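Hi F.,

I've been meaning to write this up properly since the lab meeting, where we talked about keeping a consistent format for the predictions we share between groups. The idea is simple: the sequence comes first, exactly as it goes in, then the C-alpha coordinates exactly as they come out, then a line or two of notes. No screenshots and no reformatting. I'm using this chain as the first example so we have something concrete to point to.
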Amino acid sequence: MLKKTLLTLATSALLAAPLAVHASEHGHEGHDTYQAVADSVLATERKILAENTQGKGFGPQSPRDIDAISGQNKRIFEVAPASTSMNLCNIHFHKNAEHKAQDFSVYAGNGNGDGYLSGYKYSGHLSKKELKPMKGHICNSHHGDGALMSGDTIEVHYVYTTAQVKPGPTLGSCLSKDVINNPQLRVETQIYVVVNDKNALDFKNLTKVVQTASGLYQAEGIPDNTGAPVQYEGSTTGPGYNEKGSPYQVTWSVRPHVAKVNIATVGKWCESNIFKENHGHGVRNLVKNPDLLSQIK
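Output, unedited:
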Protein backbone atom coordinates (compact mmCIF):
# COMPACT_ATOMS: atom_id res chain seq x y z
CA MET A 1 0.00 0.00 0.00
CA LEU A 2 2.86 2.39 0.85
CA LYS A 3 4.52 1.74 -2.49
CA LYS A 4 1.25 2.19 -4.35
CA THR A 5 0.52 5.46 -2.53
CA LEU A 6 3.97 6.92 -3.12
CA LEU A 7 3.96 5.80 -6.74
CA THR A 8 0.57 7.40 -7.36
CA LEU A 9 1.48 10.71 -5.75
CA ALA A 10 4.97 10.90 -7.21
CA THR A 11 3.73 10.08 -10.69
CA SER A 12 0.94 12.65 -10.46
CA ALA A 13 3.48 15.25 -9.37
CA LEU A 14 5.68 14.55 -12.35
CA LEU A 15 2.99 14.02 -14.94
CA ALA A 16 0.25 16.45 -13.91
CA ALA A 17 -1.73 17.18 -17.05
CA PRO A 18 -1.76 20.84 -18.08
CA LEU A 19 -4.57 22.89 -19.53
CA ALA A 20 -4.59 23.84 -23.20
CA VAL A 21 -2.58 27.01 -23.89
CA HIS A 22 -2.23 29.64 -26.62
CA ALA A 23 0.51 32.54 -27.12
CA SER A 24 4.21 32.57 -28.11
CA GLU A 25 7.04 31.26 -25.93
CA HIS A 26 10.42 32.87 -25.40
CA GLY A 27 11.09 33.87 -29.00
CA HIS A 28 12.21 30.46 -30.30
CA GLU A 29 10.63 29.85 -33.64
CA GLY A 30 8.65 26.64 -33.74
CA HIS A 31 7.44 26.58 -30.13
CA ASP A 32 3.75 26.02 -29.53
CA THR A 33 1.73 29.04 -28.48
CA TYR A 34 0.10 29.73 -25.15
CA GLN A 35 -1.27 32.48 -22.94
CA ALA A 36 0.56 32.87 -19.67
CA VAL A 37 -1.56 32.98 -16.55
CA ALA A 38 -1.64 36.16 -14.48
CA ASP A 39 0.59 36.72 -11.45
CA SER A 40 -2.52 36.42 -9.32
CA VAL A 41 -2.85 32.72 -10.25
CA LEU A 42 0.57 31.90 -8.82
CA ALA A 43 -0.10 34.10 -5.79
CA THR A 44 -3.29 32.14 -5.15
CA GLU A 45 -1.48 28.82 -5.52
CA ARG A 46 1.15 29.93 -3.01
CA LYS A 47 -1.56 31.10 -0.60
CA ILE A 48 -3.35 27.76 -0.83
CA LEU A 49 -0.06 25.92 -0.31
CA ALA A 50 0.60 27.94 2.84
CA GLU A 51 -2.90 27.23 4.15
CA ASN A 52 -2.68 23.51 3.36
CA THR A 53 0.65 23.09 5.15
CA GLN A 54 0.42 25.49 8.11
CA GLY A 55 0.68 23.67 11.44
CA LYS A 56 0.47 20.22 9.85
CA GLY A 57 4.07 19.17 10.31
CA PHE A 58 5.22 19.25 6.71
CA GLY A 59 8.95 19.12 6.24
CA PRO A 60 10.95 21.48 4.02
CA GLN A 61 9.86 21.72 0.40
CA SER A 62 11.52 21.96 -3.02
CA PRO A 63 12.46 23.53 -5.40
CA ARG A 64 14.14 26.68 -4.10
CA ASP A 65 16.65 29.42 -4.87
CA ILE A 66 19.92 27.73 -3.86
CA ASP A 67 21.67 31.10 -3.59
CA ALA A 68 19.32 32.03 -0.71
CA ILE A 69 20.37 29.95 2.30
CA SER A 70 17.79 31.01 4.89
CA GLY A 71 14.82 28.92 5.91
CA GLN A 72 12.60 28.54 8.96
CA ASN A 73 11.27 25.01 8.64
CA LYS A 74 12.30 23.15 11.79
CA ARG A 75 11.40 19.63 10.68
CA ILE A 76 14.67 17.71 10.69
CA PHE A 77 15.33 14.39 9.02
CA GLU A 78 18.46 12.36 8.54
CA VAL A 79 20.56 13.39 5.57
CA ALA A 80 20.69 10.63 2.95
CA PRO A 81 24.00 8.84 2.40
CA ALA A 82 26.29 9.86 -0.44
CA SER A 83 24.91 8.79 -3.81
CA THR A 84 27.87 6.42 -4.19
CA SER A 85 26.39 4.39 -1.32
CA MET A 86 22.88 4.33 -2.79
CA ASN A 87 21.14 2.88 -5.84
CA LEU A 88 20.30 5.01 -8.85
CA CYS A 89 16.62 4.33 -9.44
CA ASN A 90 15.40 6.93 -11.95
CA ILE A 91 16.52 9.70 -14.29
CA HIS A 92 14.13 12.29 -15.70
CA PHE A 93 14.26 15.94 -16.67
CA HIS A 94 12.14 19.04 -16.37
CA LYS A 95 11.83 21.58 -19.15
CA ASN A 96 13.32 24.77 -17.67
CA ALA A 97 15.01 24.60 -14.29
CA GLU A 98 12.86 24.06 -11.22
CA HIS A 99 15.61 25.44 -9.00
CA LYS A 100 17.05 28.92 -9.30
CA ALA A 101 20.66 30.15 -9.05
CA GLN A 102 22.76 32.87 -10.65
CA ASP A 103 23.56 30.72 -13.71
CA PHE A 104 19.90 29.87 -14.28
CA SER A 105 18.03 32.91 -13.06
CA VAL A 106 16.09 34.11 -16.11
CA TYR A 107 12.42 33.60 -15.32
CA ALA A 108 10.65 31.76 -18.13
CA GLY A 109 7.31 33.29 -17.14
CA ASN A 110 4.21 32.12 -15.33
CA GLY A 111 3.46 29.48 -17.93
CA ASN A 112 0.07 27.87 -18.23
CA GLY A 113 -0.56 27.52 -14.50
CA ASP A 114 0.11 23.79 -14.48
CA GLY A 115 3.89 23.74 -14.50
CA TYR A 116 4.57 24.06 -18.19
CA LEU A 117 6.50 26.98 -19.75
CA SER A 118 7.50 28.25 -16.32
CA GLY A 119 10.69 27.79 -14.30
CA TYR A 120 14.12 29.28 -14.96
CA LYS A 121 16.44 29.50 -17.96
CA TYR A 122 20.17 29.75 -18.51
CA SER A 123 21.35 33.32 -17.94
CA GLY A 124 24.53 33.11 -20.02
CA HIS A 125 25.26 33.87 -23.66
CA LEU A 126 24.92 31.38 -26.52
CA SER A 127 26.28 31.74 -30.03
CA LYS A 128 24.19 31.84 -33.19
CA LYS A 129 25.57 28.42 -34.07
CA GLU A 130 24.49 26.95 -30.74
CA LEU A 131 21.01 28.44 -31.21
CA LYS A 132 20.57 27.17 -34.77
CA PRO A 133 17.14 25.47 -34.94
CA MET A 134 16.98 21.70 -35.27
CA LYS A 135 14.86 19.92 -37.83
CA GLY A 136 11.96 17.88 -36.53
CA HIS A 137 10.53 17.66 -33.03
CA ILE A 138 12.91 16.95 -30.15
CA CYS A 139 11.31 15.39 -27.04
CA ASN A 140 7.89 16.78 -27.96
CA SER A 141 5.67 16.76 -24.86
CA HIS A 142 2.24 17.63 -26.31
CA HIS A 143 1.64 19.65 -23.14
CA GLY A 144 1.44 23.06 -24.78
CA ASP A 145 5.14 23.78 -24.42
CA GLY A 146 6.22 22.12 -27.64
CA ALA A 147 9.43 20.27 -28.40
CA LEU A 148 12.86 21.14 -27.03
CA MET A 149 14.53 23.91 -29.01
CA SER A 150 18.19 24.87 -29.25
CA GLY A 151 18.93 27.16 -26.29
CA ASP A 152 16.36 25.62 -23.96
CA THR A 153 17.25 24.80 -20.37
CA ILE A 154 16.55 21.45 -18.72
CA GLU A 155 16.98 20.29 -15.12
CA VAL A 156 17.99 16.65 -14.87
CA HIS A 157 17.20 14.67 -11.72
CA TYR A 158 19.33 11.64 -10.99
CA VAL A 159 17.30 9.98 -8.23
CA TYR A 160 18.98 7.67 -5.72
CA THR A 161 17.43 5.39 -3.11
CA THR A 162 18.57 3.21 -0.22
CA ALA A 163 16.14 0.54 -1.41
CA GLN A 164 17.52 -2.52 -3.20
CA VAL A 165 16.06 -1.86 -6.64
CA LYS A 166 16.96 -1.62 -10.31
CA PRO A 167 16.65 1.64 -12.28
CA GLY A 168 13.33 2.05 -14.05
CA PRO A 169 10.38 4.27 -14.96
CA THR A 170 8.85 6.81 -12.53
CA LEU A 171 9.69 7.43 -8.90
CA GLY A 172 7.95 4.15 -8.12
CA SER A 173 11.17 2.47 -9.22
CA CYS A 174 12.82 3.97 -6.13
CA LEU A 175 10.76 1.74 -3.83
CA SER A 176 10.92 -1.94 -3.02
CA LYS A 177 7.82 -4.05 -2.39
CA ASP A 178 9.80 -5.85 0.30
CA VAL A 179 10.61 -2.62 2.18
CA ILE A 180 7.94 -1.47 4.63
CA ASN A 181 9.35 1.93 5.56
CA ASN A 182 10.12 4.72 3.12
CA PRO A 183 13.68 4.50 1.80
CA GLN A 184 15.99 7.47 2.02
CA LEU A 185 16.09 9.48 -1.20
CA ARG A 186 18.72 11.74 -2.72
CA VAL A 187 18.51 13.70 -5.97
CA GLU A 188 21.74 14.62 -7.71
CA THR A 189 20.76 17.60 -9.86
CA GLN A 190 22.36 19.12 -12.93
CA ILE A 191 21.03 21.95 -15.08
CA TYR A 192 21.91 21.78 -18.76
CA VAL A 193 21.38 24.10 -21.71
CA VAL A 194 20.68 22.19 -24.92
CA VAL A 195 22.66 23.50 -27.88
CA ASN A 196 23.09 22.68 -31.56
CA ASP A 197 26.73 21.69 -31.21
CA LYS A 198 28.19 18.26 -31.93
CA ASN A 199 31.12 19.08 -29.64
CA ALA A 200 28.88 19.64 -26.62
CA LEU A 201 28.29 16.87 -24.07
CA ASP A 202 26.53 13.68 -25.16
CA PHE A 203 23.38 13.03 -23.14
CA LYS A 204 23.83 9.28 -23.57
CA ASN A 205 27.09 9.51 -21.64
CA LEU A 206 25.58 11.84 -19.04
CA THR A 207 22.88 9.27 -18.27
CA LYS A 208 24.92 6.08 -18.59
CA VAL A 209 24.08 3.60 -15.84
CA VAL A 210 26.62 1.11 -14.49
CA GLN A 211 26.49 -1.50 -11.74
CA THR A 212 29.42 -1.48 -9.37
CA ALA A 213 31.20 -4.50 -7.95
CA SER A 214 29.19 -4.04 -4.75
CA GLY A 215 25.95 -4.30 -6.73
CA LEU A 216 24.93 -0.63 -6.62
CA TYR A 217 23.57 1.13 -9.70
CA GLN A 218 25.23 4.45 -10.48
CA ALA A 219 25.02 7.22 -13.08
CA GLU A 220 28.69 7.61 -13.89
CA GLY A 221 28.43 10.55 -16.27
CA ILE A 222 27.24 13.34 -13.96
CA PRO A 223 29.56 16.34 -14.55
CA ASP A 224 32.13 17.03 -11.85
CA ASN A 225 33.13 20.50 -13.07
CA THR A 226 29.92 22.49 -12.51
CA GLY A 227 30.62 23.63 -8.96
CA ALA A 228 30.30 22.09 -5.53
CA PRO A 229 26.72 20.85 -5.16
CA VAL A 230 24.51 22.83 -2.80
CA GLN A 231 23.02 20.29 -0.42
CA TYR A 232 19.79 20.91 1.44
CA GLU A 233 16.81 19.12 2.94
CA GLY A 234 13.67 19.24 0.80
CA SER A 235 10.96 17.20 -0.86
CA THR A 236 9.80 15.75 -4.15
CA THR A 237 8.84 18.35 -6.76
CA GLY A 238 6.57 18.67 -9.79
CA PRO A 239 3.50 20.87 -10.40
CA GLY A 240 1.24 18.43 -8.56
CA TYR A 241 2.53 20.03 -5.35
CA ASN A 242 1.81 23.68 -6.22
CA GLU A 243 -1.11 23.74 -3.79
CA LYS A 244 -0.26 20.92 -1.38
CA GLY A 245 2.85 19.95 0.48
CA SER A 246 4.96 16.98 -0.53
CA PRO A 247 5.23 14.56 2.40
CA TYR A 248 8.41 12.91 1.10
CA GLN A 249 11.85 13.68 2.49
CA VAL A 250 14.59 14.20 -0.07
CA THR A 251 18.22 15.23 0.30
CA TRP A 252 19.09 17.47 -2.64
CA SER A 253 22.48 18.09 -4.24
CA VAL A 254 22.10 20.87 -6.81
CA ARG A 255 25.09 21.94 -8.89
CA PRO A 256 25.23 25.73 -9.25
CA HIS A 257 26.67 25.95 -12.77
CA VAL A 258 25.24 24.95 -16.13
CA ALA A 259 26.71 22.48 -18.62
CA LYS A 260 26.04 22.45 -22.37
CA VAL A 261 24.63 19.30 -23.96
CA ASN A 262 24.14 18.42 -27.62
CA ILE A 263 20.39 18.69 -28.25
CA ALA A 264 20.52 15.91 -30.85
CA THR A 265 21.72 13.46 -28.18
CA VAL A 266 18.90 14.48 -25.84
CA GLY A 267 16.47 13.75 -28.66
CA LYS A 268 17.98 10.30 -29.15
CA TRP A 269 17.60 9.59 -25.43
CA CYS A 270 13.94 10.61 -25.53
CA GLU A 271 13.37 8.06 -28.28
CA SER A 272 14.64 5.16 -26.18
CA ASN A 273 15.79 4.81 -22.56
CA ILE A 274 15.22 2.41 -19.67
CA PHE A 275 13.27 5.05 -17.78
CA LYS A 276 10.66 5.37 -20.57
CA GLU A 277 11.06 9.15 -20.53
CA ASN A 278 10.20 10.98 -23.75
CA HIS A 279 9.68 14.62 -22.80
CA GLY A 280 10.47 17.27 -20.22
CA HIS A 281 8.19 17.36 -17.18
CA GLY A 282 6.54 20.49 -15.81
CA VAL A 283 7.97 22.46 -12.91
CA ARG A 284 6.68 23.18 -9.46
CA ASN A 285 6.44 26.83 -8.43
CA LEU A 286 9.61 28.03 -6.73
CA VAL A 287 9.03 27.69 -2.98
CA LYS A 288 9.51 31.09 -1.33
CA ASN A 289 7.62 30.69 1.96
CA PRO A 290 10.38 30.62 4.65
CA ASP A 291 8.23 28.30 6.77
CA LEU A 292 8.55 25.71 4.00
CA LEU A 293 12.30 26.05 3.47
CA SER A 294 15.19 24.46 5.36
CA GLN A 295 18.32 26.37 6.31
CA ILE A 296 21.14 25.65 3.87
CA LYS A 297 24.24 24.94 5.92
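Notes:
The beta strands are 87-95, 106-107, 120-121, 153-161, 185-195, 209-211, 217-219, 230-234, 250-254, 259-262.
DSSP finds four helices and ten strands in the chain.

If this format works for you, I'll send the rest the same way.

G.
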